[in-house]
Amino acid sequence: MSDYSSKEKTGAKEKSPKNSVSEKLLGDIPEDGPAHHSFTVTPVRQTSINSGGGSGRKHLAVFEVGEDGDVTDTLTQNSITSLLSAKFRDLSKRWKQYGEESPRFRKRLVSKWESMNYDQIDSQLFQEENNKLKNKSKKKLAVMWVSRWFMMFLVGIGTSLLAAGVHIAVELVAHQKFHLIAKYLDKCSDTGCLMTPVAIWCGINLGISLLAAALVTYVQPTAAGSGIPLIKSYLNGVRVPGLLSLRCFIAKTVGVVLSILGGLACGKEGPMAHSGGIMAAGLGKGRIPWFGRDFKLYNAFRTDHEVRDFVAAGAASGVSAAFGAPVGGTLFSVEEAASFWNTELVWRVFFSAMIACFSTNFLLSAFEGHPTELSHPGLVRFNTFPNLTFDLIEIPVFILMAVIGGLTGALFVVLNYKLTVFRQKYLHRHNWIKVAEAGLVSVVSAVAGFLLMFGVRECTTAKPNSSHAITTSMFCEEGSFNTMSTMFLTTPEGCLKSLLHDPLESYGVLPLVAFIVIFFLLGVWTYGLSVSSGVFIPSLAIGAAWGRLVGMGVVQLFPDQAKDVGKYALIGAASQLGGILRTTISLTVIIVECTGDISFGLCIMITLMISKWVGDFFTTGLYDMNVEVSGIPLLSWEPPPLSDNVRVSEFMSHPVLLLMPREKVGHILDILQNETFHGFPIIEQDPSSVLQYKGKLRGIVLRDQLLTLLQKKAFAPEGMKTSVKVSTQEFNDPYPVSQRVSIKDLEITEDEKHCVLDFKPYMNRTPYTVNPDFSMPRVFRLFRGLGLRHLVVIDEDYQPIGMVTRKDLAKYRAGTKRGMLHMEQLTIENV
């Protein structure tokens, strides 16, 4: 459902292209153009995707060829040249039509996404309850202050327990799995039964990955992927159904363990941020859903505003526990996820992240047998580099590596976008296809690993850095082992550590090149599967591999200057991750905290910044691409450029659906059943007007409030007062109302439809309003800064004439591609 209708829904006609907002945005550009940028505005045609019907097929555009493109195979053509030319024109026209008419997944907003309501409903009921608690307000504020800090402590403890449990489960089972495969590889390389270990490897991967995909697909689809794009959208103010549910928590945590054990090219760091957010939201809501029943513990923090703050802390705690980086986790939540911050919240989030890091350190150290040493601050540590120093003459090499990281990162995003669109158009019609694809990828991963060990028969005697490394001596002499085994007979995290810390002679050029190509393609294919998976570790492993390759070249060219390839692997890992995710500040701090050496921070920061700039020249980041493909109305930090002369009257939704202070229940039911609006302005009828529903604005009531009032039967026959008392807490119980109470759940009799519902005690009496002359930047900053859901547009007589919602602002998107700033006006689709 949408917060308010689009112009097509309300019946208002779209403006002609000459008068559109896009044209006006373009109108500020001089004819000669700016000196350094070329601005263009691209209005995107609206497409229609039919989500109903039994076949589930999407209705694509029908291509027609005009008379000038008619093609014939008969002898009426003068020559073979003219025939080929005509066919070429036909093909060109069809290709052009496909580009213009086919659904464009990144050029739309989907109407189903709702906004959260961060604004306090200033109702008469709210004021009465506050007056009753006036004497207890100081004590209540103190209790709430202490409770928030205590809840942040619990979030940190809970996230650390989860992180340690996931890590221990993965390490124990993965060690047994790869030890079994290595045993059969060693045995069968001499006896000629190599199909046996291949069958064991494929069988284990297939069984576990099918279970991981089925868990996500059939239990909670929102648990797929890393979860960070959806967490980012939630913290931006978009409600994502099922994102913070108990089912999603189970599918996410259990699923990520199964995904890694299933041999998929993924990590558990992104899912840890999502899992931490779910745990924090559950603690904030104070209820435990179990088999259709709710066990309610408390309700002090059951509002959108409070839950949002807890989710921000949970996401930061998850990253902190994953990397042992409390400062980096806090900055990651600030830079990549959350949109609303203040100093006190930053302190609470940092406190939670620090508790998570310390507790994870203690639990993992205890698991290793030395709990007092605290030597395992996170799930992924880059460990200490013996020679992490650099010379100024190496800076150009690092810059070149950053450019490579930006280019390969942009290629990763482009390929994954193409694959995502292909999945949505063809593979996501049936759930069993999602599960089968995950099984196919796991089998391909096992076969690829075996073929590389079988085909690249390179052996080494260099001892691996990790004492837990599993190797195989397949086709190698006694005392040596297969080079590729240290990269494939381990988890992606173990592979990353090997590439960062193994000696120079551990890998040759051919094994690294083969690994880079295969693992890059597997990473592209894996991200987007219907499994719980992260992209941090695969990105770092790919970058570490080609970074190590560059380091080997530098050592060959300058043997006196370069002695350690580990730092080049680290720079390559940072460049690759920056080129894919496009975050700079938080990743710099995370990598510095993971290495434990601040002296290399400058080089890491430079490479991350340049890789981001190079990647942004071609595409958006991976997480932003996921948000765009999902059609989520995300609001950026700043309003669209060149929009100062655009007035709110030009992009608001109108006309509005108005209500009187007292309405019959039957009329309210009709509105809720037939309209998708989430906000209804309340007016007082102008007695001098002959038109009905024309008068001054008195307030606004939300759809959730109407559902709650009807469910509580807070209405009475005409001329009588209702005896039902509804408190403000009941409007958030259950939370959120829109996801747990629907119009179908209401049991309203025919007699009750003639009763009257009085909105005066419950409506927001002081909604935010603007006049039609407000500019887009002012509306944007007001809307985003206050976290609004609805902004009412009124005329000079204080009569509502329009409504501004999140989608009205988000459909104007600014971006930079190939060095040029461009504007796009997106369409809103009902999918």
From TrEMBL:
Transmembrane segments: 149-170, 198-219, 240-265, 310-333, 345-367, 395-417, 438-456, 507-528, 535-558, 585-610
InterPro entries: CBS_dom, CBS_dom_sf, Cl-channel/antiporter, Cl-channel_core, ClC
Protein name according to UniProt: Chloride channel protein
Compositional bias segments (type: Polar residues): 39-50
Main subcellular location: membrane
PANTHER family: CHLORIDE CHANNEL PROTEIN CLC FAMILY MEMBER (PTHR11689), H(+)_CL(-) EXCHANGE TRANSPORTER 7 (PTHR11689:SF136)
Location of this chain's protein in the cell: Membrane
UniProt biased composition (Basic and acidic residues): 1-17
Molecular-function annotations in GO: chloride channel activity
Topological category with respect to the lipid bilayer: Multi-pass membrane protein
Alphabetized Pfam families for the sequence: CBS (PF00571), Voltage_CLC (PF00654)
GO cellular component, one term: lysosomal membrane
CBS domain sequence ranges: 652-718, 763-820
SUPFAM superfamilies for this protein: CBS-domain pair, Clc chloride channel
